[in-house]
Design brief:
GO terms for molecular function: ATP binding; ATP hydrolysis activity; transmembrane transporter activity. The protein is an alpha/beta fold. It has a single domain, classed as Rossmann fold. Helix content is 38%, strand content 26%. It is built from eight helices and ten strands. The strands form two sheets. Strands 6-7-8-3-9-10 form a six-stranded mixed β-sheet. A four-stranded antiparallel β-sheet has the order 2-1-4-5, with helices on one face. The chain is globular and about 50 Å long. Bound molecules: adenosine-5'-triphosphate.
Length: 224
C-alpha cells in the first residue's frame, strides 16, 4: 500500500528526515512513535501529500501510495490524488466551526463532486456506524471532544480512502474516549479494509497496532 524510499526533509541546515524508507501493507495498522522533534509529524505529512520531501531527484526519493509515486505528481493532480485516496485525522480535529457535523463530513465528498444526496447518505451511514447520528445538525462547538473526533473520523472516511493518516488522534481526549477511538480504528479496518498510519505518544495505542516504528532523530531506530 505504501512503499517509500529515501525520504529526506531539510529546513535550511536542519535535516529533519534522513533517508527514511518504509513499507506498509494494505490493511496494516502501524504506529509511529518517538521523542518530540524526532520527525514523526513531518514524515506523516509527507506520506500524506501535505508536505513535500526535499529534492526527490537528488536523493532518488520514491513514495508509492497505492502504486502511484506521489513525488511525480503536479500540485493539481496531487490534490486530486489526496482527495480520492487519503484520509486525515488530526489531534485538534480541525472541523470547520461554521458548518454542522453533517456538512463537515460531506466536504471532502463535495470537493470530489459527489452529489449532495449521495454524500449525505454516506455521511449518515458513517455517523450511524460511529454512534453520532443524533448530533448531525450540531456545530462543532456544541459537541463533546469525543463526538468531535468521531465526526472528524467520518470526514476522513467519506471518500472511502485506501489509507488513513492520523496525527495524535487521541492526544486531546480523556482516557475513555481515547480507548473508544482506538477500538474504532481496528473495527474500521475490519469493516472497510483501511490501512492506518498513526503518529502517537499513547503507549497503549502503539502497543495495540500491528507494528510500531520508532523514530529517533530523523530515522527509524528499530522495528517490532
Ligand atoms: N516548517 C518548519 N520549519 C522549520 N523547522 C520545522 C518545520 N516543521 C518542523 N520543523 C522541525 O522539524 C523537527 C521535527 O518536527 P516534527 O513536528 O516532525 O516532530 P515530531 O516527532 O512530530 O514531534 P512531536 O512529537 O513534538 O509532535 C523539529 O525540530 C521541528 O522544529
Amino acid at each position: 500500500m505504501i512503499k517509500a524510499t529515501n525520504i529526506v526533509k531539510k529546513y535550511g541546515e536542519l535535516e529533519v528526515l534522513k533517508n527514511v524508507s518504509l513499507e506498509i501493507a494494505e490493511r496494516e495498522v502501524v504506529s509511529i512513535v518517538g521523542a518530540s522533534g524526532a520527525g514523526k509529524t513531518t514524515l506523516l505529512q509527507i506520506l500524506g501529500t501535505l508536505e513535500k520531501s526535499s529534492e526527490p531527484n537528488k536523493y532518488d526519493t520514491e513514495i508509492l501510495i497505492n502504486g502511484q509515486d506521489i513525488t511525480k505528481l503536479s500540485d493539481k493532480n496531487l490534490s486530486r490524488f489526496r482527495n480520492e485516496n487519503i484520509g486525515f485525522i488530526f489531534q485538534f480535529h480541525q472541523l470547520l466551526p461554521e458548518f454542522t457535523a453533517l456538512e463537515n463530513i460531506c466536504i471532502p465528498a463535495f470537493i470530489r463532486k459527489t452529489n449532495k444526496a449521495e454524500a449525505e447518505k454516506r455521511a449518515k451511514e458513517l455517523m450511524d456506524y460511529l454512534g453520532v447520528s443524533h448530533r448531525m445538525n450540531h456545530k462543532p462547538t456544541q459537541l463533546s471532544g469525543g463526538e468531535q473526533q468521531r465526526i472528524a473520523v467520518a470526514r476522513a472516511l467519506i471518500n472511502q480512502p485506501k489509507v488513513v493518516f492520523a496525527d495524535e488522534p487521541s492526544g486531546n481526549l480523556d482516557s475513555k474516549n481515547a480507548e473508544e477511538l482506538h477500538d474504532l480504528f481496528f473495527n474500521l479496518r475490519k469493516e472497510f479494509g483501511q490501512t492506518f498510519v498513526i503518529v502517537t505518544h499513547n503507549e497503549e495505542l502503539a502497543s495495540l497496532t500491528d507494528r510500531k516504528l520508532v523514530m529517533h532523530d530523523g530515522k527509524f531506530q528499530e522495528e517490532f
